[in-house]
Structure formats: structure tokens, C-alpha cells
Amino acid sequence: MDTHVSLFVCLCLLAAQSIPAETTSELLTLMKHLERPRGRTMPSRVKHIHRLEQMLLNTSFCGHNLTLQTDAIQSLVFELGCSFPGLSLSSATLPNVPQAWAPHGMQFPAELTKEACVASQPARLRLICVYFFTAQLFQDDSNSSLLNNYVLGAKLDNRTVNNLQNPVNISFWHNRSLEGYTVTCVFWKEGASQHSWGAWSPEGCYTEQPSPSQVLCRCNHLTYFAVLMLSGDPVPAELLVPLEYISLVGCSISVVATLLTILLYAHSRKQSDSVTCIHMNLHGSVLLLNVTFLLSSQMALPTVPRSVCTVLAATLHYALLSCLTWMAIEGFNLYLLLGRVYNVYIHRYLLKLCVLGWGFPALLVLLLLVIKSSVYGPHVISFSKSQENGTSFQNVSMCWVRSPVVHRVLVMGYGGLTSLFNLLVLAWALRILCRLRAPDKALSSWAYRDTVMVLGLTVLLGTTWALAFFSFGVFLLPQIFLFTIFNSLYGFFLFLWFCSQRRHSATEAKAEMEAISSSQTTH
């Protein structure tokens, strides 16, 4: 037995002398350098991570595995063969794991080495696992929050491993409350960003929550994995199909209705006035918003170039800001019509409104594209699904704003100010309407007309967009359906308002003609 042990030691020494290897001290030094990324440029970080991977793949050691560890990085190396039965790793069984580290684990299927062994019969296969217990090296453009700030990575030689039939299972345990968050398993997609060395993507990963303290990622490839924490309550996956159907049907109807309104206006226009022109500009912005929204999910597919999705996301954001701005202009114009006793003349009034309605949103979006174009791109929306073994998540992508700060300020904030202003204008207009009707005894004759007027103003001022601020708690599900129904059909409601106003104008014109005719007959 001692002879066999001596022979094994000698073989290890010979291998160490014949194979160019990096020493353990060099590996540990590099890992400690990676722990201190501050002040290092992005190319330097990428270079050091790739160098660590190559050093781990080329280093020589005795036995079948090697474990190296620093304060925030752990590296594991395994020698595999074509008869690989699978491998299960857990922080509970790894040596010298600090108690402060949250439990984690990775499970590799036997299929992992199948493609490499079928293509050729390699003398050896080496699996490396690199665990980063800090997210500083993997900051994307959105500065996304990661569960435990853990990034767990794996690589098989210098081979690309993807489309596995049996997924790699990555487990993240935690002791924090995830209330108000949606967790999504993601992987680091190198080269997917212009300002960072990669971006987080959910492609090929399936998210489960077997227990309140565990998130399980099932991914069909090897790379660096993490759990993305998105603020907001998850929407049940059962609602995905109905919401998609409502959005598709509603937006399609609105596109047709808006086009019809613009064509009718262009065909029947005799004399242009500011009110009608403002209405048509609002219709134009709604048309652009619906068309870009319908395209946004199709352009977020992995087969579509990222630049196309970025341009479409910026266009969708511009269309929304323009639509909100024209709603505010409608409110301002209504104030001028009802609040001023005498006519107000503003030099080049329509031109100034068009500069505000179309130019100001364009300026905001162009500034964002110039400063940081990565704020636009594929945006992930998670839907939760309850299962016997926990909760799983289904991800849907669309081309939209990716930056949480930009979304809070230039989507929710901008929309909130617009909705607040128009709600105040609507309340003020209703107060004036009630005051005008107060002396009238026969209120019933005006009831129908006033109801139509109130509903029309509500639609015209876009007050239904205020529903976006009720997406929490018990209001979440009703809000989602009401918001989707009302705002996908917004163009259709504007068409109904246009028809009612046109009918009212025709009735008034007819009554005026009859009055003139009657007057002429009398004389």
C-alpha cells in the first residue's frame, strides 16, 4: 500500500514539472486583487476575471479537486471524465466556509460532459466553479439588486455548454423578507451592454421558490448566475394570457379608431381651429403609442439585434411622454376656454403647443440616449405561478425603459404630474358645470348631455392613467385589468368623443339653419 502511495506522489510531482501551471499563491493573489475592484477600469476587471478562469483551467494539483478561498471569492476545480455521473455541491459540505456566508449550492447533471465526449475523447475535462460573494464586479447599467449579492459561476474547460436537456440547478438560500420584490434567475451575458462588460438576462433560466427561504434556478447552460430582485409585487402567471389578449385587441382597435378619426378629420375639415388641431395631435401621439407598444414585445426576442430594441424602446418612451404632454395641453386649453371670460390671443399659439407637445419629449429622450443609451432595451416582467414544490416565475420581455431611476422620474413622475393637473382641471370644470346648471329647474333635460360631457372630458384628459398608482396590495389585480382595458382602448374612447362632438356640431348647425330659415319665412 505504501508503494502505491509513493508512486502516486511521484506521478503528481512529474505532472507538476511537465505541465505549465500557475501556483496556488498566484491564484490567491489574483483573487484578492479581484476583491478590490474600486479604481479599476472595466477592461481591467474583465481581463482579471478571464485570467483567473484560465489559471484555474491550467493549474496542476494532486487529487481530483482543488479549493481556493479568499474573503469574498471561492474557486473550485474538478477533474471529470466521460463517465461523469453528475455532481452536487453545497456550501454545507465545502471546507472552511465562513458562517457569515448564506448557504448556496450547485447541481450538475450527468449530461454535462456528453457533448464534449461525443465530439472527441478528451484526455481530461475540467470543471471550474467561481463564486463571488460580492456583486461589485457584475454591476449592470441599471445597478440591479442581487439576492445576497451572490454571483455563482461555472465553466467546463474552454467549451460552450448550452441547451442542456437536464438543467443545472443553482440554489440560493436567504434569511430576508422578499415581500414587495419579484425574484428572477438571471445569467451574466457578456458583451450585452455598451457601458458595462455585460448585462443580466433571464434567457434559458427558470425560477422557483421551493420555500420562503430558498430560490432555485434551473438553467440550461453554464456561465455566471444570480437572482435579480425587482421591486413590485409579482403578477400571477394565469393572468398573462388574458392581459396579452386584452392589450392586443384593445390596442388594435385603438389603432384602427385613431386612423379613422384622423382620416375623417382630414376629409371633412373646412376651417381649422385650435381645439380641433389639439385633438388631432393627441390622436397622433396615441396612434404612435399603440403601434410601438404592439411591436415592443416582438422586438425584445433574442434573435432581434439589441440596437433595434433600444431604438424601439426609446420611441415607445417618446410616444408615452408625448401622449401625456398632449393630455396636459388639452387640460390647459380647457382651462383657457372655460376660465377666461374674454378671448385670449396668444401669438402662434398652435406652433408653441406643437413645440411643447412633440419637441419637449423628444429633447428628454435624446438627452437620455446621448448620456446613457443603455437605459433603453429589453425589460423583464415576471409572473408568479404557484406549484406544489413552491413558486415558479415566468418572464416576459419587452423593449422599454430599463433604468429604475428613469422609470420613476420620467414615467411615473411625469405621468403623475400630468394626471394630477388634469384631475384638478376636471374637478374645476365639473364645478363650473354644476354652477351653470344650478339655476335651471329642469335638470333632467340636461342630464344625458352633461353625463356625456363629463365622460368625454374624463377620457380627453386621460385621467384613467392615474390608475397606474394603485398597483399595490389588494388593488393590484383590479388595477391591472382596469388599467389595461381603459388605456388600451383609449384611442377608441377618443374616437367616440370625436363622433359625439361631430354629431353635436351637426345638430347645432342644423338648428341654426332652421332658425335662419324660420326667420326668413316670418319676414
Automatic annotation (TrEMBL):
Residues 243-502 form the G-protein coupled receptors family 2 profile domain. The chain crosses the membrane at residues 245-266, 278-296, 316-338, 350-371, 411-430, 451-474, 480-500. InterPro entries: GAIN_B (IPR057244), GAIN_dom_sf (IPR046338), GPCR_2-like_7TM (IPR017981), GPCR_2_secretin-like (IPR000832), GPR1/GPR3/GPR5 (IPR003910), GPS (IPR000203). It comes from the Eukaryota. Residues 74-235 form the GAIN-B domain. It is a multi-pass membrane protein. The keyword Disulfide bond applies. Keywords: Cell membrane, Disulfide bond, G-protein coupled receptor, Glycoprotein, Membrane, Receptor, Signal, Transducer, Transmembrane, Transmembrane helix. Residues 1-21 form the signal peptide. It holds the Pfam family 7tm_2. It is found in: Cell membrane. Its main location: membrane. This is Adhesion G-protein coupled receptor G5 isoform X2. The lineage of its organism: Eukaryota, Metazoa, Chordata, Craniata, Vertebrata. The gene is Adgrg5.
